[in-house]
Amino acid sequence: MVLVVSGLLALAEPRFLNASNLVSVGTGMIYDLPVAAGMTLVLALGGIDLSVGAIIGLTSVVTAMYLRSGGSVVLAVPIALAAAGGAGALNGLLVARFRVAPFLVTLGTMSIARGTATVLTSGYYLSGLPPAYIEIGRGQLLGVPYPVFVVLGVVVVFDVLLRRWKPLHDAYYAGTNPPAALLSGIDVGRLVFAGYVASALAAGLSAVFMTSRLAMGYARFGELAELRAIAAAVLGGASFSGGTGSILGAALGVLLLAVISNGFVLLKLSVYWQGVVSGLILVVAIAVDASRRRRNESR
Amino acid sequence: MTSAHTGRVADIARHRLTPAARYTLGLAGAVVGLLAIMAALYPQFADSANVEVLAMNFILEAFMALGMTAVIVSGGIDLSVSAVLPFAAIVTGLLLRAGAPVPIAIGIALLASAGIGALNATMRQVLRVHPFIVTLATMLSLKGVNLVITGGAPVAGFPESFAFLGRGRLLGLPFALVLFAALAVAIGWLLAHHRYGQQVYLIGGNVRAARLSGVNVERVLVLVYVLCSSLAGLAGVVAASQYVSASTGFGQNSELRVITAVAIGGASLNGGTGSVGGSVLGVLFLAIVYNAFGMSGVSTYWQDVVSGVMVLGAVLLAQAAAREGRTRRAVGPGERPAAAQVR
Amino acid sequence: MNDQILGVQGVSKSFGRHTVLDEVTFGVRAGSIHALVGENGAGKSTLMNILGGALHPDSGTVTLDGRPAAFADPSAAIRAGIGTVHQEFGLFPNRSVAQNIFAGREPAGRAGFIRWRALGRQAQAILSEIGVDLAPSAPVATLSVAAQQMVEIAKALSLRPRVLILDEPTSALSDHEAQRLFRLLADLKSRGVAIIYISHRLSDVRQIADEISVLRDGRLVGRTTREASPDDLVSMMVGRHIESITPSRRTQLGAEIFKVEGLTRHGVFADVSFGVREGEILGLAGLVGSGRTEVARAIFGADRLDAGRIWLDGRALAIGSPRQAIASGIGYLTEDRKALGLFLAMTVRDNIVAASMPALVSQAGMLRPRAIRAESARYVQRLDIRPADDRVEARTLSGGNQQKVLLAKWLSVAPRVLIVDEPTRGVDVAAKDGIHRHLSELADAGMALVLISSDLPEVLGLSDRIGVFRQGRLVTILDGATATQEDIMRHASA
């Protein structure tokens, strides 16, 4: 599918295959990849996380405020991840412990996180970050920005762990049939909690790179990121009913979305169409999921 | 307003109040208490001007809450309302600018909104996914459509007569408020006393049993989602009239505020409970809290934080109440617990 | 038989390879009560669902007033005057009693607005008629289970049915409430209503039934009257001879390694104590709902215990979760294969290795695919799981093979004590034999087994001792060598 879309795009607009364009498609995926990976885990566990986009905004603001108050660049990243992880822990607690429907919990925390970020900044950009911090996102090794390596590493490690590491692999059991997983000795509650924390941490990582590369903290960073992540994960094989999905599949989903949106830019279509298309992509993802389920049931 | 319907004095005496009715009364008490506190703290709060501002600030959410109540009672949810609102405003605006007569423009906008609701219900049924996901997709696509048809620019230049809806006055009150009150009474009455209204509760309470009782579940659900979308559309038309323009920015995050208000009003997100009266109180409660923020000079940016905290709080509270109800039942008099739980 | 209202003629029904009803002919006459008795799984509920239009027979006909009738769905049966009271509640918890009785059929004016006064009045009339003191306006969620059961009955009666089918209606009622129900049924009978009464409570049946039909393994094995003695009924229900020969085993039993004392969960079971020796199979018999599964779940840490102690190998255990139970050496094979046992959308291999772990993961917790493949293949072969390809989804397997997959999962864990709950329910004869053989092999190998089963020949054939549960209590422990089915039934349903 990725290949088909890429091929069509290359035919329609030869510039698609320019090395510089391909690099820009690749770096454009830095932000979405970790979030989609985290979302895959949450979906595999039978949940959903709508708060990741807002967590990106909150983390970005917190990081920028810390740096502007003279904080150390070394500590800025751990602090960003702690802020994100804290929000994820709140999600995990409410879903795993208090059994509130995940979409409600994360809709609520989405609003809280986005609102808090806006309150903290009164809606303004926070620029003037120290150059050393900006270097984290913009610095290059062999002509490739650092974040590309980090994100690729995270995706590969995450993929292997979800595939092979027993404590994480149990997510598939927990998402397929939670009571049966419990009776098989799997601590479903702890796993679900960990899933939301991991998803938030991934969003935090995305926020670190966004804040650094764009050299500012902004409350509205990460808008609609949760929806792109859901679409990518579902296109990559995850299901709203839990128990399936892979990080590699989600990464391909992100790639597909990136190619499509690159196509928009190249073909000079109005950015306004992007909203329609992302909605339609979600509809397509839902339909794909529905037909997969139907096929399974009819067997 | 809630479910003590049979009207037999003896029954009411025997059972006093249903838990739902008790909750609604408690909420009404909280609203009154909040009003009193605000009036004591801020003398200008009780001004008739401020009261009107308070009511009108949440008039759009109030319209939407009427339909959302029906959706949530049926066990569903509709996130697309926050896109339907600007959509209806923009459709009205574009038609008016093109010279369409006011009633025609409004009619078409409302019909288009109703169509979105029918689409939501149909997708829910065909794709068999939770309405939350379906309506999320609709919300996204429709927000995109809004941007595309306006090119992102506000639509303005409406005839004078159109402004009446949002700015006119009737009986000394804002016209929109009067319209809302009439709709609230009508929809509340339908939901509580009409067969179809009661079927919404049956569906939300136990879908399988509702089917076995001969309820046409799919048809009722289509009506419910159409109602919800149409009211969001009406809110959009009112907004366009109020601001004498239509913008894609209308109704940002309003779905969350509306769901919060309905949840505060006593509707369980698991379906089967809730009432229009409760939801109106829920909207009022939210309106007062937001107004209080304005009064005390706290940034309006806090609003999103507050609605997030309140939606979580309302859900946790409802869950605790449900748990309490269950345990009380398990040890209630005349019960044989062994038989109650072994099955 | 010419005044028979509702009946079935030569009806058969299978689910997959499992035949639930085999050529059953049965009917009820106006103004009489016909009881249908049989053990769990004999096919009573399936027959009821066919009569009530919820299921369609594979062959044979349903007759109404002597003419063939095919009900498209339950509402068609309702229109034909057949009222059904199911075991599961079909109620709306947040609606009032009156609304539940008339759900979907509320009295309404021409515009469709409900006439609440009329609704309350009509509900009150029905409630008074059946002698139930409930307020029509009370929300059903606030009622006791017994009262909810009465609302179900009122709902069925509000249809003025010609035929009333009740499935285990007294399972949630106290004696006093049950007697009131019986008086009501006698009254309905005198007014010409035909009543089909499904139960395995023999005392109830002998009190009210005019005719009694006995189902066993999907076949109608006898028809008698209430004059039949309980012993006759029991022997008809369980069969005079045991069809499948369960392996007889006599090994040296070792020391008592597992012991529970005073296990109590308020309102569910109380003061349950027993011990199991190395190599022993302790059978637990009793009616469905007598508390056996609940005790097992509590031992396994899936439900909370209010009191009681558990020892394994002389050590007192504090078990807070299934995870701890497994780590301590206790396994539990659930009775509810699909809901609580299998991961239906996952492969057979995934299912087999779901709980076992230390041997199949490296120290760092990484799965070892080769070891997993070998482990899975070993059990597929040893238990003869079909198809032999363990990469197919568990949902595609037959019931018997699914059950073997669950057993394989626990064999792979190799606990010291294994509790198996209805290990052969809904399983064909060949698979049943296989599972029996494996269970006795496990015991012979020194495992302590607790066998919960409603299949009396199975319990008798496999168990060294048999504990009998009644209403949340372990009432007696019989010697497996000398106990008879009649002994067990007497203790279980006294």
From the alpha-carbon coordinates, what is the Rg of chain A to the nearest angstrom?
19 Å
Looking at CATH, which topology of chain A would you report?
ABC transporter involved in vitamin B12 uptake, BtuC
What profile does the largest beta sheet of chain C have? 6 strands, mixed
Secondary structure tally: strands of chain C: 20
- From the alpha carbons, calculate the radius of gyration of chain C and give it in angstroms: 25 Å
User: In which order are the strands of the major sheet of chain A placed?
Assistant: 1-2
Mean pLDDT of chain C: 84
Which sheet architecture does the biggest sheet of chain A show? 2 strands, antiparallel
CATH fold topology of the largest domain in chain C: Rossmann fold
The side-by-side strand order for the widest beta sheet of chain C comes to 6-7-8-3-9-10
Per CATH, the class of the largest domain in chain C reads Alpha Beta
Oligomer: heterotrimer
The beta-strand count of chain A equals 2
Architecture of chain A, according to CATH?
Orthogonal Bundle
CATH H-level superfamily title of the largest domain in chain C: P-loop containing nucleotide triphosphate hydrolases
Proportion of strand residues of chain A = under 5%
Number of distinct helices of chain C: 17
Mass-distribution shape of chain C: globular
- At CATH's second level, what is the architecture of the largest domain in chain C? 3-Layer(aba) Sandwich
Topology summary:
The complex is a heterotrimer of chains A (299), B (343) and C (494).
Chain A: H1 2-12, H2 19-28, H3 32-44, H4 52-68, H5 73-97, H6 102-121, H7 131-138, E1 140-141, E2 144-145, H8 146-164, H9 166-176, H10 178-183, H11 188-213, H12 225-235, H13 247-266, H14 272-298
Antiparallel strand pairs in A: 1-2
Helix pairs in contact in A: 1-13, 3-8, 3-11, 3-12, 3-13, 4-5, 4-6, 4-11, 5-6, 5-11, 7-11, 8-9, 12-13, 12-14
Chain B: H1 9-15, H2 19-41, H3 48-57, H4 59-73, H5 81-97, H6 102-127, H7 131-150, E1 155-156, H8 164-167, E2 169-170, E3 173-174, H9 175-193, H10 195-205, H11 207-212, H12 217-243, E4 245-246, H13 254-264, H14 276-295, H15 302-330, H16 337-341
Antiparallel strand pairs in B: 1-4, 2-3
Chain C: E1 4-15, E2 18-29, E3 33-37, H1 44-51, E4 59-64, E5 67-69, H2 74-79, E6 82-85, H3 97-101, H4 116-129, H5 145-157, E7 163-167, H6 175-190, E8 194-198, H7 202-208, E9 211-216, E10 219-224, H8 230-238, E11 256-265, E12 269-277, E13 281-286, H9 292-299, E14 307-312, E15 315-317, H10 322-328, E16 330-333, H11 337-341, H12 348-352, H13 369-382, H14 399-413, E17 417-421, H15 429-444, E18 448-452, H16 456-462, E19 465-470, E20 473-479, H17 485-493
Parallel strand pairs in C: 3-8, 3-9, 6-7, 7-8, 13-18, 13-19, 16-17, 17-18
Antiparallel strand pairs in C: 1-2, 1-4, 4-5, 9-10, 11-12, 11-14, 14-15, 19-20
